[in-house]
Specification:
By secondary structure, the chain is an alpha+beta fold. The chain folds into 2 domains: 3-79, Arc Repressor Mutant, subunit A (Orthogonal Bundle), CATH 1.10.10; 85-252, Beta-Lactamase. The chain has 9 helices and 8 strands. The protein has helices at residues 3-26, 32-39, 43-55, 72-84, 87-102, 144-152, 157-164, 177-190, 236-252, and strands at residues 59-62, 67-70, 105-111, 116-122, 137-138, 193-194, 203-211, 217-226. The protein has a 6-stranded antiparallel β-sheet with strand order 5-4-3-8-7-6, sandwiched between helices. β1 and β2 (67-70) form a beta hairpin. α1 (3-26) crosses α3 (43-55). The longest helix has 24 residues, at 3-26. It starts with a helix and ends in a 13-residue tail after the last helix. GO terms for molecular function: DNA binding; DNA-binding transcription factor activity.
Length: 265
């Protein structure tokens, strides 16, 4: 096979995977016409790739509606991958690199009912350790990790928290609902959050979101240190390296920030 043929084959595989991702993200049956509009190509071209995915067992066709859903085989495959490649494993190497680069402790956490659960901690290089322990639960409203979750996770969580009342952990904790809503909107726009002195006086964290293969929010990565070393306005380098690390971990989980919709020849 020459280079041109190889390139065409790779493009065809990428396009078929883009179709599969779209149907999986849609979480409902999808028709040929809709896919044709979404990808800006002909129905016959879409149909050709759909048939390949059906033959491979990754899509199923509803004979009554002539629409397509992901198959049980694909769901089982996703479950198997998820069980063998959970967040802490996907993040470990990148978290260590970030810790080694900046020196601060690095924590990986995921949302649970009570708050943010710390799954992984890379201790700082400092002789004096200031960090949260693995297994700890952080409140949503008073932690940088929690603010990231309120911005990118379940959108019903913030109204539920503000209606129940925001607990004051320190004199610096945000307890005013309107101020908290503003804080979360800022977090959503800049894609990072801080919480200086809000959970514990003297402690700050700088956190960013992590996304999975379908674009869903799954957790946060955070730098943790004293307010002396992570200020309420963190340095540009701290923000840059944190966001880069979050992107790497998301990529490890299959997330693509700019999912190509370009069609294959």
């Amino acid at each position: 096979m020459d280079d041109k043929s190889k390139g065409t084959s790779i493009q065809a595989v990428e396009f078929a995977l883009n179709i599969l991702e779209y149907i999986a993200q849609h979480q409902a049956s999808v028709g040929i016409s809709e896919l044709s509009r979404v990808f800006g190509t002909t129905k016959s071209r879409i149909h050709r790739h759909i048939q390949t995915l059906v033959s491979a067992g990754y899509l199923v066709r509803n004979e009554d509606t002539e629409r397509y859903n992901v198959s049980a085989r694909l769901m089982a495959l996703g479950q198997a991958v998820s069980e063998s490649f959970e967040l802490a494993s996907a993040a470990r190497h990148t978290a260590r690199e970030l810790r080694d680069s900046l020196g601060h402790a690095v924590a990986i956490s995921q949302p649970e009912r009570e708050g943010m659960r710390i799954l992984l901690l890379m201790p700082s290089r400092s002789n004096i350790e200031i960090a949260v322990k693995p297994g700890s639960i952080l409140q949503y409203h008073s932690s940088a990790q929690g603010k990231v979750t309120l911005a990118f996770g379940d959108q019903m969580l913030l109204p539920q928290l503000t209606s129940a009342g925001l607990e004051m952990s320190t004199p610096y904790t945000i307890t005013d609902p309107e101020q908290m809503r503003d804080e979360i909107e800022i977090t959503r726009k800049r894609r990072w959050a801080v919480a200086p002195n809000e959970a514990m006086v003297g402690l700050n964290a700088l956190a960013a979101p992590i996304f999975d293969a379908l674009g869903g929010y799954v957790g946060a990565i955070a730098l943790t240190d004293s307010v002396q070393f992570i200020a309420s306005t963190p340095s540009n380098e701290q923000v840059r390296q944190l966001l880069s690390a979050a992107e790497k971990i998301s990529a490890n989980l299959g997330y693509r920030a700019q999912q190509s919709r370009s069609a294959a020849v």
